[in-house]
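Summary for the steering committee. The consortium agreed at its last meeting that each partner would contribute one worked example illustrating the joint modelling workflow. Our contribution is presented below. We chose a case with several input lines so that the handling of multiple components could be demonstrated. No manual editing was applied between input and output; the record is shown as generated.
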Amino acid sequence: VQLVESGGGLVQPGGSLRLSCTASLFNLNNYWVTWVRQVPGMGLQWVANINQDGSKKYYVDSVRGRFTISRDNTQNSVFLQMNSLRAEDTALYYCSSAIAAADSLWGQGTLVTVAS
Amino acid sequence: QSVLTQPPSASGTPGQRVTVSCFGSSPNIGKNPVSWYQQLPGMAPQLLIYNDDQRPSGVPDRFSGSKSGTSASLAISALQSGDEADYYCLAWDNSLDFCVFGPGTKVTVL
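What follows is the complete predicted structure of the assembly.
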């Protein structure tokens, strides 16, 4: 049972990336999913979350309008489309299912670096 | 400035009890459940406490959570060297309409 993030990498300011969070050996469709990021050496920042059927989405102010969270329950995956990237978006991005519930699970993260 | 505040550090000797506090306000801790996360060096965070004081299965009962008004606390009893980590609180904020983490507390075992 695990979550695996992918899609990170080096991108220029103003560019775009799409992160994926895919579940193995359990049905991600049953859970809210959250993206959390962490600048190396710094604290955790909650970024966005989405409910089970994708009808409810919430974003931290600093990414609203630039990032879009979505899910494809046929792929057992959640995505984070990141546009208009800035240097301050550089971080390790984690996904978590049921972040504040008894069966909470976190992935190992994918690194996003925004630099020219 | 963080919506939730935590002391940057806490410490104790093996076997001691250490408490980490998380201070908020009415829209967040005052009205919503608090969860706590442990992040060991180089590792992803993991849930320690949810709904203020509930422990997921597998979390030792040395870890306990409590809440009063607009503040919450995580207590670690019988401190062990393996408890050296960063600890974060998390709560939904009704005014901001998103979740907020505290800045984290580094616990050191002396």
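The mean pLDDT of chain B is 97. Chain B touches chain A through 25 residues (CB under 8 Å).
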